[in-house]
Design a protein that fits this description.
Strand order of the largest sheet: 1-2-3-4-5-6-7-8
CATH topology: TIM Barrel
Structural class: alpha/beta
CATH class: Alpha Beta
Largest sheet: 8 strands, parallel, barrel
CATH architecture: Alpha-Beta Barrel
Distance between the termini: 18 Å
Number of domains: 1
Order of helices and strands: EHEHEHEHEHEHEHEHH
Number of strands: 8
Length: 209
């Protein structure tokens, strides 16, 4: 898995009237280096169609493409990997299906992070750091204290996620995160590319990378 800094997840509810491919291309042009397709409501047919279009886009710009939850769609679209939650298919079973493709796991406590690392996850999500409206089934915020725990102990890559905005991202970076995942702050912005550029600049400044 190549290194990354700024990870963006689709959130079509935040940009009504704008095409998801257009929005995500602007994000990539702003410096996003991983795109994840997350669609909790569409039909499999519609999600696969979007996945294939996003796969074309990410290949064009040489960035990684991840599908949330749907292993069948990840495989059918030749995505680089899958992102799973704590209630999804166990990592060991997912690995049998995905082979050497990327598997990311959402974690909300250090025990979950340790388990994901032990079981062979390629990266973990750490969050939600702050309150977020991007998910209906969201758990309580883990705060920057969990980011600090993970930064001090977990050796596989991790990405901080959940309610991260331009005004609070410095708190997350100060806690030890070097990779940030953003949804609404980027895709819901009037200036998608510019917002991504500003977030990436903050990451680079704070992490000297």
């Amino acid at each position: 898995m190549r290194d990354f800094r700024l990870y963006a997840i689709t959130g079509e509810q935040f940009h009504p009237g704008r095409d998801v491919i257009e929005v995500m291309e602007e994000a990539i042009l702003g410096g996003v280096d991983i795109i994840q397709l997350r669609d909790k409501t569409g039909s499999k047919r519609d999600i696969l169609h979007k996945a294939r279009k996003l796969r074309e886009l990410t290949r064009k710009h040489d960035v990684l493409f991840i599908v949330n939850d749907h292993i069948d769609i990840a495989l059918a679209s030749d995505a680089d990997g899958i992102h799973l939650g704590q209630d999804d298919l166990p990592l060991a079973e997912a690995r049998k299906i995905m082979g050497n493709k990327i598997i990311g796991i959402s974690t909300h406590a250090i025990e979950e992070a340790r388990a994901a690392e032990r079981e062979g996850a390629d990266y973990i999500g750490v969050g939600p750091v702050f309150p977020t409206k991007s998910k209906l089934d969201v758990v309580d915020p883990v705060t920057t204290s969990y980011v600090r725990e993970v930064a001090g102990e977990i050796r596989i890559p991790f990405v901080a996620i959940g309610g991260i905005k331009l005004h609070n991202v410095d708190q997350v970076l100060d806690a030890g995160a070097t990779r940030i995942c953003v949804i609404s702050e980027i895709v819901g912005s009037d200036d998608v590319r510019g917002t991504a550029e500003k977030l990436l600049q903050k990451i680079r400044t704070r992490t000297n990378s």
